[in-house]
Amino acid sequence: MASRADALAPPEVMARYEAVIGLEVHVQLATRTKIFCGCPTSFGAPPNTNVCPVCLGLPGALPVMNRRAVEMAVQAALALNCRVNPVSRMARKNYFYPDLPKGYQISQYELPLAEHGWVEYELEGAARRVGIRRVHLEDDAGKSLHEGFRDSERYTYVDLNRCGTPLIEIVTEPDIRSSEEAYQFLTELKQIMQYLEVSSCDMEKGHLRCDANISVRLRGASEFGTKTEVKNLNSFRFLRMALDYEIARQVAVLEDGGRIEQETRLYDVASGTTVGMRTKEHAHDYRYFPEPDLLPLRVSDAWRERLRAAMPELPAAKRARFRSEFGLRDYDVEVLTASRELAEYFERAAAASGDPVEASKWVQGELLGALKAAGKDLAVSPVAPEQLGELVAMVRQGHLSGKMAKEVFAKMFATGEPARVIVEREGLRQISDAGELERVVDEVLAANPKQLEQYRAGKATVLGFFVGQVMKATRGQANPQAVQELLRRKLASPAS
Questions:
Q1: Same-domain pairing of 411 and 439
Q2: pLDDT value for 4
Q3: Is 447 found in the same domain as 339?
Q4: What CATH number has the domain bearing residue 467?
Q5: What is the CA radius of gyration of the chain?
Q6: Does the N terminus or the C terminus of the chain have fewer Cβ atoms within 10 A?
Q7: Is 189 inside a domain boundary?
Q8: Is residue 281 part of a domain?
Q9: Which of 302, 337, 352 is the last residue of a domain?
Q10: Which residues, in sequence order, are bridge partners of residue 266?
């Protein structure tokens, strides 16, 4: 089925054009309190309860900068390879909206916190780089909740709980050329923020939101086209769909001899289209001026370097190390580094197991499978990483077969007990003792003369029958490899 974008401009027409995309990403910082007051930032409180004179914009209320918000913003900027400016300044961005009680937003304009960074990511096996123009601090507005029409009237409710929550706005250079590139860049950016723990980036709660600036031009052209801005894209899927539609819409307009108007548009999920909202604002429309109630923000070299030293290993570095240090496949690396929590769990399990590759298989297979089936998060896993590593080591050392280990794991997950306790209590340890195995093998061969004769007559598949009988006699506790070696030696001997 053709997409709405294909209906606007077929692929052969699209091939003549190139998209130019820049993103403005708003990330809510994970502070306990708001950026300029002591109100909590917790999500889900009753409407208009997490508010005070400062975030309500009442006369005479003065803002005070949240130091933790600045620290998180600096670490985010460093992780994006930005230059952190020693002096930056807050500014008033003036505009009217029902959920902006001050009538202005406190943001940064001429002197942002950080500038000139970049993010690298991979797409189709090739490295891509997107420049970061600036990272700046600001406070968030409230939230307008719209209800459907009733008696020909539309109702809008305003919840000011979100007013004053700390944000960083990350503005990219126009280096992105497709919706897929935008998707992959935003995926990498989100992972970086989550590794730093500066934000949960929960898009359902509005902790990560994205505006996209989009223009098109003929391939090979050097001049940028007229851009439109698509606001408030709150899921990666909708980001990709909105970009595809808007790129195709602009191409269709140009192909029909029209002209692109610089405007702000919204993505309508129901129709799968972008819809005009208002004429695009320019900086002078906001009448920026320095915030008179806040001093310039100064970040000393010593403070910046302390914050850098406290940062964890970032996703790209961790992926590279997992490949080189543990010899893992690219797919396994991507799964295990998807979150900082999972990567750290794996490392602890691998250290306890002595076999990172096997530990990787158990984490991805048994552990993640059991957590998904139980509807549990890794944070509440009944099996600690060291316990899983111990189980993998017992298999590696020949104390448990793979089948037995899976049974033990199920009991570990159900009870939280370590493997050694379960194995000793239930007598599950694998039998590898040569003398004990030889006694069982001799009994099986003596009890099955017909099958022994078939094997001697050339029916090699009977070996599997003997292995099965030995495993049955030992309740599955015999070491399968040792059993096969012993059987082959015995069966090769005429005296057997």
A1: no
A2: 67
A3: no
A4: 1.10.10.410
A5: 31
A6: N
A7: yes
A8: yes
A9: 302
A10: 231, 275
H or E segment at 410? helix 402-415
First to last CA, the chain: 68
Answer whether residue 11 shows pLDDT above 80.
Answer: yes
Convert the pLDDT of each residue in 289-342 to its tens digit: 999 999 999 999 999 999 999 999 999 999 999 999 999 999 999 999 999 999
Q: What is the pLDDT of residue 155?
A: 84
For the chain, give the number of residues: 496
Q: CA 21 to CA 35: how far, in whole Å?
A: 30
Pair (341, 213) in one structural domain: no
- Contacts of residues 449-457 at CB distance under 8 Å and 24 or more positions apart, as own/partner, are 452/491, 452/496, 455/491, 456/491
Domain count, the chain: 3
Residues near 226 by beta carbon (within 8 Å), at least 6 away in sequence: 215, 259, 260, 261, 262
Report which of 359, 404, 268, 302 is spatially closest to residue 412, judged by C-alpha positions: 404
> What is the extent of the structural domain holding 116?
4-302
In this structure, are 216 and 339 located in the same domain? Answer: no
SS3 342: helix
Answer yes or no: are the C-beta atoms of 30 and 72 closer than 8 Å: yes
| Token pair listed for 170 | 């990350």
213 lies in a domain? Answer: yes
- Residues 381, 337: Cα–Cα separation, whole Å: 18
- Give 242-299 as a DSSP string: HHHHHHHHHHHHHHTT-----EEEEEETTTTEEEEEEEPP-GGGGT-EE-TTSPPEE-
In order, the DSSP letters of 144-163 are EEEEEEETTEEEEEEE-TTT
pLDDT at 495 over 70: no
Mean of the pLDDT values across residues 246-268? 94
For the entire predicted model, the pTM comes to: 0.86
| Statement to judge: residues 252 and 371 lie in one domain | no
| Residue at a domain's end among 274, 302, 330 | 302
Element (H, E) at 173: none
Do 358 and 291 reside in the same domain of the chain? Answer: no
Going by the DSSP 8-state scheme, the letter that residue 378 receives in this structure is: G
> Using CA atoms, how far apart are residues 404 and 423, in angstroms rounded to an integer?
9
Compute the distance between CA of residue 325 and CA of residue 346 in angstroms, rounded to an integer.
13
CB 444 within 8 A of CB 451: no
Q: Is residue 308, in this structure, part of any structural domain at all? A: no
In the block, which residue shows the tokens 């089948």?
403
Q: Torsion angle of alpha carbons 202, 204, 205, 208, nearest 10°?
A: 50
What does DSSP assign to residue 94? E
